[in-house]
């Protein structure tokens, strides 16, 4: 199937097929095509690629459970042969130039175009994009990856805790301990004399930033304030912050992960990853009282503090990548228009978690997420992920329980929206949640080697508590024939067109 055959009379046709079943959804309408045009995209060293660029309206339920419409963009390379891998970009919008390298590989790209609160509606909309991606008729549902940097890396981890299956995720410099990251940024702004009233125009920022001792921490204070309003004061609402952190859901992250940190990051300090990689900043370079230490910035908190405390070392490989000191700093103009230093991220072909430490030395007050001008690629990792079937171990007892909680409509425990003093909702409509869980289970069973995945699903399902055994039918336990029972459940949802 080529791109023209796939689209038929236009993207509206395949979107209608995707969510014809959604007619039964009383809460949310189907997604809608706003515009569709042929464009040529190039950049980042990738050759110019001709593709369809589709502007979408994607419905979702916000954290109050109210229907909203979010904007997204889809690129599909002309002539691409279905089924296609898809890269979904979380939280921050990806530019056409940023998508070019993925499109050159023949992959489809779906990006958010929304500006939403990182631990709030951004995660709900990210899940809506993951649901949509799995139902697109020209996408291989076993070859979907989530990517994002900083808050986008955070979103990729949090969305992946619910999504299943995924070929892989690539969180670059993500906040792992959300309370520590925000408390540190709040502390850094205070000792760096950031103004209480932040600039509102690029011109005002350009005038202010050269006067600040640690400029970048002031630039993100609106994010800090939004999150504190949502989740409450760091010390008083420690459990709420912990539940909203990737550390709390790490056991649900069962797909391959490529996670990278810089030793010099002054926005998302490496302290929350593993203390052994911390390189102490020179005290005389930062304002008096400036600290990256947990005990200084967040003395009252919920544990664990770091990824090192929750990760299974037998399932992870760590790679330290030295960055030459000759690479231009991010605050310097590169001589002669020099290109950033290119790094192809190393990864493990055997272990599901690859941790990459970009060794740039200690933090510097004018650094951002990195100290040097770097171009870090993860294309080799994604090629590897897209070339492999879904492993049996991608489904665990905890992961299946989470999926069935979604299926029966259970919300994650304990999350609170402190702005409204009410539970913070993560679930979409029942129709969409059930459809995504069923298609995910079918994908897992059918994409594995032989019967291994089906057998594992049967064993794990049989061990579920009774309230989560929602796929049983009278006289027909689900585990007795997982392949047949998944197909029947999907037909009952009207998903046979997928």
Question: Could you characterize the architecture of this molecule?
Answer:
- With 498 residues, this protein is α/β, with parallel strands linked by helices.
- Among the domains are: 173-391, no CATH class; 394-492, no CATH class.
- Helix content is 31%, strand content 20%.
- The protein has helices spanning 3-7, 11-18, 96-104, 121-135, 151-162, 178-191, 202-208, 215-219, 221-231, 238-243, 294-297, 379-386, 397-408, 430-447, 452-462, 482-492; strands at residues 32-43, 46-61, 67-77, 84-89, 108-112, 139-149, 168-172, 257-262, 316-322, 341-344, 353-359, 374-377, 416-417, 422-423.
- The protein is globular.
- The two termini are 15 Å apart.
- The relative contact order is 0.12.
- Residues 1-9 have low confidence and may be disordered.
| Topology order in helix (H) and strand (E) letters | HHEEEEHEHEHEHHHHHEHEEEEHHEEHHH
Q: How big is the Rg?
A: 23 Å
Tell me about the largest β-sheet. 10 strands, mixed
Number of helices: 16
Described by the principal axes of the CA atoms, the overall outline is globular
* Residue-averaged pLDDT: 91
In terms of per-residue confidence, which ranges show pLDDT below 50 for 5 or more consecutive residues? 1-9
Q: What is the straight-line distance between the termini?
A: 15 Å
What's the number of extended β-strand segments? 14
* Cross-sheet strand order for the largest sheet: 1-2-3-5-4-6-7-8-11-9
Strand content: 15-25%
Structural class: alpha/beta
Helix content: 25-40%
């Amino acid at each position: 199937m080529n791109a023209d055959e796939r689209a038929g009379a236009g993207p509206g046709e395949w979107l209608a097929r995707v969510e014809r079943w959604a007619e039964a959804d009383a809460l949310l309408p189907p997604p809608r095509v706003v515009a569709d045009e042929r464009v040529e995209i190039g950049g980042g060293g990738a050759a110019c690629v001709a593709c369809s660029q589709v502007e979408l309206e994607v419905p979702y339920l916000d954290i109050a459970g109210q229907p909203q419409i979010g904007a997204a963009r889809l690129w599909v390379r002309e002539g691409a042969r279905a089924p296609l891998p898809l890269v979904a970009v979380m939280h921050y919008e990806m530019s056409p130039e940023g998508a070019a390298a993925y499109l050159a590989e023949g992959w489809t790209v779906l990006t958010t175009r929304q500006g939403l609160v990182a631990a709030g509606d951004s995660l709900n909309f990210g899940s809506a994009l993951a649901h949509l991606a799995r139902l697109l008729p020209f996408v291989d549902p076993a070859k979907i990856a989530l990517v994002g940097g900083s808050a986008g890396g955070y979103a990729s981890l949090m969305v992946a805790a619910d999504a299943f299956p995924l070929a892989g995720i690539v969180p670059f410099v993500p906040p792992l301990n959300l309370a520590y990251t925000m408390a540190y940024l709040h502390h850094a702004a205070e000792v760096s004399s950031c103004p209480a009233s932040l600039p509102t125009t690029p011109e005002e920022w350009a005038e202010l930033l050269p006067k600040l001792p640690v400029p970048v921490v002031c630039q993100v204070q609106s994010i800090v304030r939004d999150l504190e309003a949502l989740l409450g004061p760091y010390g008083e609402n420690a459990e709420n912050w912990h539940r909203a952190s990737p550390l709390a859901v790490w056991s649900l992250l069962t797909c391959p992960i490529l996670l990278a940190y810089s030793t010099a990051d002054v926005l998302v300090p490496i302290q929350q990853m593993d203390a052994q990689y911390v390189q102490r900043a020179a005290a005389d370079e930062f304002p008096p009282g400036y600290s990256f230490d947990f005990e200084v910035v967040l003395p009252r908190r919920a544990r664990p503090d770091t990824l090192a405390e929750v990760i299974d070392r037998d399932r992870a490989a760590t790679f330290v990548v030295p960055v030459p000191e000759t690479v231009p700093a991010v605050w310097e103009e590169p001589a002669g228009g020099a290109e950033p230093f290119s790094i192809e991220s190393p990864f493990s072909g055997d272990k599901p978690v690859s941790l990459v430490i970009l060794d740039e030395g200690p933090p510097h007050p004018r650094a951002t997420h990195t100290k040097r001008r770097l171009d870090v690629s993860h294309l080799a990792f994604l090629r590897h992920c897209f070339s492999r079937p879904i492993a049996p171990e991608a489904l665990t007892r905890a992961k299946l329980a989470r999926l069935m909680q979604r299926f029966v409509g259970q919300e994650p425990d304990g999350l609170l929206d402190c702005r409204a003093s009410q539970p913070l909702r993560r679930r979409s409509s029942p129709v969409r949640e059930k459809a995504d869980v069923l298609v995910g289970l079918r994908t897992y069973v059918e994409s594995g080697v032989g019967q291994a995945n089906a057998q594992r699903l049967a064993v794990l399902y049989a061990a579920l508590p009774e309230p989560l055994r929602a796929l049983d039918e009278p006289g027909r336990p689900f585990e007795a024939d997982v392949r047949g029972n998944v197909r029947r459940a999907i037909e009952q949802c009207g998903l046979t067109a997928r």
